[in-house]
């Protein structure tokens, strides 16, 4: 019961928020919530550390932006095509990297993301260092105008909720159970007749699709796609978001994304100190609160109820 | 088809490739030692290389200690920083998934680079070459210093490989990696040895930084781009394979140089293309033996 009340309260807050907070900031938070959830699917549920996850986000921003600007697609089609094409990229990356687990997967995905970075730096349609500018906010279904910040906010909100619901369905499906089993004991899963590699590739495909969707949404929000979205810095930030909130929990990375976006917004004025503070908090989380905020909270509630 | 490519250009780029390869080899060697012996993926390796270059610069500017002194002092200083890092942030994570130590060193990079930028700014600082001048080889001009870098790093790589593979100390290290409890029962302080191994690998990164200071500009971000290339080198060579890291380092440097001659647009991409091909054809690394694959 409390759960539904909480969800209802969240829904009300989300619906009235743009009248009190700058919609662009809210939409940034939503994009990173979807992005962080996609990362959570890999590290939190399948135990795969993708150290170059920004490649799907950044490339998604370019593809979504290009489809709206040069391709003349309506916004929902641009998002859909972006998500599908990034899923294909994720599948290809999975084919190359999923055979090697753990730490090597991290290093390989990092290197592949750098490869994509240089590839897009060279590609003519990205406009190199300038980025893809003046991306239009195409009409929804070709008829509904979403060019204002407020109307776009409701679209982004709806898509983000749908994406997170999709994520929730994945991790609570039998497929999600197998992923968790692979994370906890890969050898055992293999001995039961599953092929872990295949599950990892599918997880990477789904996760890349979600990350690409988040990138396309960001391109429509800021109306620009740049190489920064692909950079290693963004890959690091997303790891930080997921870890701070709590890996392997549904709400953790979502909370982490909101906190970090707000924190970055506030710290922007401090220049170099922003990175130093971010690094220090990151280090403290790794050393002392590996469960993250939501994970520690859940553990605390569990202890309380166990005692009562 | 390649008529327009002169022999000068080819040999010149080969030399640049060999010099870059020397740095790749030295850095991936340190990374491979740290990973192979204590199972830490040291993401801070590039930052520690950068610290080596800065220590050399500060020694010269503030204490008047020249390059040749820095060559000995800086690796020790950077190694000591590495020792402190191992004790404070890596030791508590030793029994956890390796991912945490990777992330901890990554967080350390954010802090170290941020602090360095705060203190020294982002622009590159020059470091005068200790060996000015050079020799005309007929087909090209070879600066003395670059020749020195190639020779010296080769000596360091071979010496380190011999140390790990052929000496008693090296066999203790490898044994402690396989069966720590048995080595401990011989009265060897394994945790201390692990900390010192990390410090040694980090010291190698610092030494690379000193070598790099007169060639590249000394700047807080000089290590971060190199880091990803080094990761790819270690993946290609086979994780934890010391000889594989050295050979792949030189190989990649030279291939990169050749790409600059024949297809300059792809020179940044070459290494990653090689990595992807190597992963498809030899998933355990070019130089790994079957039992060392994990």
3D shape of chain A: globular
| Poorly predicted residue ranges of chain A | none
Order of helices and strands of chain A: HHHHHHHHHHHHH
Portion in beta strands of chain B = under 5%
Radius of gyration of chain B: 19 Å
The protein's oligomeric status is: heterodimer
CATH class of chain B: Mainly Alpha
- What do the pLDDT scores of chain A average to? 86
- Cα shape of chain B: globular
Gyration radius of chain A, in Å:
19 Å
Tally of contiguous helical segments of chain B: 11
The count of helical stretches of chain A stands at 13
Number of E-type strands of chain B: 2
Named CATH topology of chain B: ABC transporter involved in vitamin B12 uptake, BtuC
Termini separation of chain B: 44 Å
**How many strand segments of chain A?**
0
Folded structure, characterized:
Chain A is mostly helical. Chain A has a domain at 22-231. Chain A is built from 13 helices and no strands. In chain A, α4 runs antiparallel to α9 and α6 (149-171) packs antiparallel against α9 (196-222). Chain A is globular. Chain B has a single domain, classed as Orthogonal Bundle (ABC transporter involved in vitamin B12 uptake, BtuC). Chain B is 71% helix and 2% strand. Chain B has a two-stranded antiparallel ribbon with strand order 1-2. Residues 290-294 of chain B have low confidence and may be disordered. The chains are: A mainly alpha (308), B mainly alpha (294). At the A-B interface, α5, α10 and α12 of A face α4, α9 and α11 of B.
Entry keywords:
heterodimer; A: 308 residues; mainly alpha; 74% helix; B: 294 residues; ABC transporter involved in vitamin B12 uptake, BtuC; two-stranded antiparallel ribbon; 11 helices
Summarize, please.
Chain A has about 300 residues and is mainly α.
Describe the protein's topology.
The complex is a heterodimer of chains A (308) and B (294).
Chain A lengths: L1 H15 L6 H24 L7 H16 L5 H23 L4 H21 L26 H23 L2 H11 L1 H6 L4 H27 L9 H14 L6 H16 L4 H17 L3 H16 L1
Helix pairs in contact in A: 2-6, 2-9, 2-10, 2-11, 3-4, 3-5, 3-9, 4-9, 6-9, 7-9, 10-11, 10-13
Chain B lengths: L6 H32 L6 H19 L3 H24 L7 H23 L13 E3 L4 E3 H23 L1 H11 L1 H6 L4 H23 L11 H14 L4 H21 L7 H12 L13
Antiparallel strand pairs in B: 1-2
Helix pairs in contact in B: 1-5, 1-8, 1-9, 1-10, 2-3, 2-8, 3-8, 5-6, 9-10, 9-11
